[in-house]
Amino acid sequence: MTEVTLQHVEEPPAELPVPIPPAEPAPAVSTVRNLPPVVMPEADVVEDVLPATTDQLKDATSGTETVEGTGDIALIAPPEASQPTVREKALEVAPKTDEPFVVVEQQPAFPGGMDGLRNFLSKNLNYPRQAAAAGVSGRVYVSFVVNTDGSLTDVQVLKGIGFGCDEEARRVVSSMPCWQPGKQSGRAVRVKFNLPISFSLE
């Protein structure tokens, strides 16, 4: 049998609480009485209801009554803003994404106007065999963006009729020549344009 001897360990003395110094009162700010203006007859105007002057407000803030402060305004005034760093300046001038307009003062136009667009579609649009075999006809609504240089991007079918007509409408729009760009406030801008393309069996 093993014998175990326990030794008595003295507890460390309790730490005395650290005294907390009393909080210093915040410095008082000088205030100048500056009540909202009230319209009254000229005879009833009293000197102390006139608004504060800029000289009075130079070293004081506006308040409901005039009070003398401690004068230590540096302790109360917020610190001046630091100069922006090179990285912050770069972030400030970073160009925003150029979202296309939907409505503009001058809409984009196909070269030759609507007649030119009709001629282009009649010469370049092929009726898909699947649609002709199934007797399908209707309109395919295509959306695209006319860029500032007149080129077309983001060609999408908004509403189609299937049977190869949607793909053919997208192909024809993608093969179009550059349009005249739309304008807003006299400058060329990107404009989102919707175009219905008809497929009809004769």
Description:
- The protein has 2 domains: 23-77, no CATH class; 113-199, Fusion Protein Consisting Of Minor Coat Protein, Glycine Rich Linker, Tola, And A His Tag, Chain: A, Domain 2, CATH 3.30.1150.10.
- The protein has a 3-stranded antiparallel beta sheet with strand order 4-3-7, with helices on one face.
- Strand 5 and strand 6 (187-189) form a beta hairpin.
- It has 202 residues and is an alpha+beta fold.
- It contains 4 helices and 7 strands; from the N terminus they run E-E-H-H-H-E-E-H-E-E-E.
Structure described in brief:
With 202 residues, the protein is α+β, with helices and mostly antiparallel strands. It has helices at residues 86-92, 113-124, 129-134, 165-174; strands spanning 31-33, 61-63, 138-146, 152-159, 182-184, 187-189, 191-199.
Note the topology.
Blueprint: E1 31-33, E2 61-63, H1 86-92, H2 113-124, H3 129-134, E3 138-146, E4 152-159, H4 165-174, E5 182-184, E6 187-189, E7 191-199
Parallel strand pairs: 1-2
Antiparallel strand pairs: 3-4, 3-7, 5-6
Mean pLDDT: 79
CATH class of the largest domain: Alpha Beta
Low-confidence parts, pLDDT < 50 over ≥5 residues? none
- Main β-sheet: number of strands, strand sense, barrel status? 3 strands, antiparallel
Architecture of the largest domain, CATH level 2?
A: 2-Layer Sandwich
Give the SSE string. Answer: EEHHHEEHEEE
Radius of gyration, taken over Cα atoms and rounded to an integer in Å: 39 Å
Taking the alpha carbons of the first and last residues, their distance comes to 113 Å
- Quickly count the helices: 4
Total DSSP E strands: 7
Major sheet: arrangement of strands: 4-3-7
Number of domains: 2
Report the β-strand fraction as a percent range: 15-25%
CATH topology tier name of the largest domain = Fusion Protein Consisting Of Minor Coat Protein, Glycine Rich Linker, Tola, And A His Tag, Chain: A, Domain 2
Structural class: alpha+beta
